[in-house]
């Protein structure tokens, strides 16, 4: 058992919950990402009356980091503040995969414990620049 409050990155994800804007789901999510140089960026979910416009906590954390010049990440933490063992949704797994190797650890708050996954375990197949290049090459071969 790992106490989530002993994990500094997870503590940052928990703190980010306080900024969540969730009038529709009332389900706050906080995320924190640690960059290759040890910087930490956090995000929370920001909902919208047009539900599909809602931003997920992981997207906001990644956006904050990337706009500050970081595109290499070492570790990711996610919390929903309740004992539900939240994990990044499918869309966020792909968003993380754009910038994180499959070995990057994703830690998820379970209230009184921490669940740890490798990103590649959460999303074994990703769409990457190589995917697009391979499709392009395949089209070239067909012509
Ligand atoms: N949510 C996130 O912020 N991250 C995830 O990966 C899972 C879902 C948010 C979206 C919505 O505001 C709320 O949780 C309920 O789905
Ligand atoms: Zn998501």
Automatic annotation (TrEMBL):
CDD domains, A to Z: cytidine_deaminase (cd01283)
Domain of life: Archaea
GO terms of molecular function: cytidine deaminase activity; identical protein binding; zinc ion binding
Binding sites annotated in the UniProt record for substrate: 45-51
One annotated Gene Ontology cellular component of this protein: cytosol
InterPro entries assigned: APOBEC/CMP_deaminase_Zn-bd (IPR016192), CMP_dCMP_dom (IPR002125), Cyt/Deoxycyt_deaminase (IPR050202), Cyt_deam_tetra (IPR006262), Cytidine_deaminase-like (IPR016193)
Residues of the active site: 58 (proton donor)
Domain CMP/dCMP-type deaminase: 4-130
Amino acids binding Zn(2+): 89, 92
Catalysis: reaction(s): cytidine + H2O + H(+) = uridine + NH4(+)
One GO term (biological process): pyrimidine-containing compound metabolic process
Enzyme nomenclature, EC number: 3.5.4.5
Cross-referenced Pfam families: dCMP_cyt_deam_1
Cofactor(s) required, per the database record: Zn(2+)
Keywords, sorted A to Z: Hydrolase, Metal-binding, Zinc
Its biological purpose: This enzyme scavenges exogenous and endogenous cytidine and 2'-deoxycytidine for UMP synthesis.
PANTHER family membership: CYTIDINE DEAMINASE
Family: Belongs to the cytidine and deoxycytidylate deaminase family.
NCBIfam families: cyt_deam_tetra (TIGR01354), PRK05578.1 (NF004064)
Name assigned to this protein: cytidine deaminase
Organism from which the protein derives: Halorarum halophilum
Gene this protein is translated from: cdd
């Amino acid at each position: 058992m790992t106490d989530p409050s002993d994990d500094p990155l997870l503590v940052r994800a928990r703190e980010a919950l306080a900024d969540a804007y969730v009038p529709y789901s009332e389900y706050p999510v906080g995320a924190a990402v640690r960059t290759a140089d040890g910087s930490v960026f956090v995000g929370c979910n920001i909902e919208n009356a047009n539900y599909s416009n809602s931003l997920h906590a992981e997207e906001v954390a990644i956006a904050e980091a990337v706009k500050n010049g970081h595109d290499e990440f070492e570790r990711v933490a996610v919390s929903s503040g309740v004992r539900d063992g939240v994990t990044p949704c499918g869309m966020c797994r792909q968003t993380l995969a754009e910038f994180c190797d499959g070995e990057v650890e994703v830690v998820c708050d379970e209230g009184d414990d921490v669940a740890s996954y490798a990103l590649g375990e959460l999303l074994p197949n990703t769409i990457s620049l190589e995917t697009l290049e391979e499709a392009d090459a395949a089209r070239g071969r067909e012509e």
